[in-house]
Specification:
Number of strands: 6
Strand content: 35-45%
Order of helices and strands: EEEHHEEEHH
CATH architecture: Beta Barrel
Shape: globular
Distance between the termini: 55 Å
Radius of gyration: 21 Å
Number of helices: 4
Largest sheet: 5 strands, mixed, barrel
């Protein structure tokens, strides 16, 4: 029997769609500063949507880059809708200090924003993540793909642009806004 000192984890991920809000740089008294944002996640039937608010710490360089690119749009009060994956969910209790609920207990859902699948600003797709190859895709790379027949010159171009045409991905080091 072999034993392993390697730690194993059970991951709990939340996936969904939501509106990006309150992007900010948090500078704690102890520890390194980090990027944070709120997500108002859509929940329930599409004709009677409710929202679940998540206060997230943005993890991963790609997610940080994308959230930074959204700062100008969020500050301009544009609707920034994202497809997201959260991890490490936990609840934090607090006491309201002002407003009609002053003195009452509240609960905040906190999580890490791990991945952004796509970003829409005011309904326009501005970013879509490239699908990652799976093991099955890698085994198919050994098989040559069949040649596609040439397109006829009279074939009209589709009116809808593909995500690859609309999402011009800048270099990861840049943080241009959408």
């Amino acid at each position: 029997m072999t034993t392993s000192d390697e730690k194993t984890y059970f991951d709990l991920h939340i996936t969904g769609l939501g509106y990006l809000n309150r992007i900010r740089e948090v500078k704690p008294k102890k520890g390194a500063p980090f990027l944070a944002c709120d997500i108002a996640a859509l929940n329930g039937p599409s004709d009677d949507v409710s929202y679940v608010r998540f206060d997230t710490r943005v993890s991963g360089s790609e997610a940080q880059h994308l959230v930074r690119r959204c700062i100008a749009a969020v500050e301009a009060e544009k609707k920034v809708l994202i497809s997201f994956r959260l991890g490490d969910l936990w609840a934090d209790t607090f006491t309201y200090s002002k407003g009609k609920h002053a003195g009452e207990q509240g609960v905040s859902f906190k999580a890490r924003l791990l991945f952004i699948g796509w970003v829409k600003v005011d309904g326009k797709l501005v970013y879509k993540a490239e699908p990652k190859p799976t093991d099955a895709d890698e085994s198919e790379t050994d098989i040559p793909a069949p040649a596609e027949p040439p397109q006829k010159a009279s074939t009209p171009k589709p009116a809808v642009e593909t995500a690859a045409e609309t999402a011009e991905a800048p270099a990861p080091a840049l943080a241009d806004s959408f």
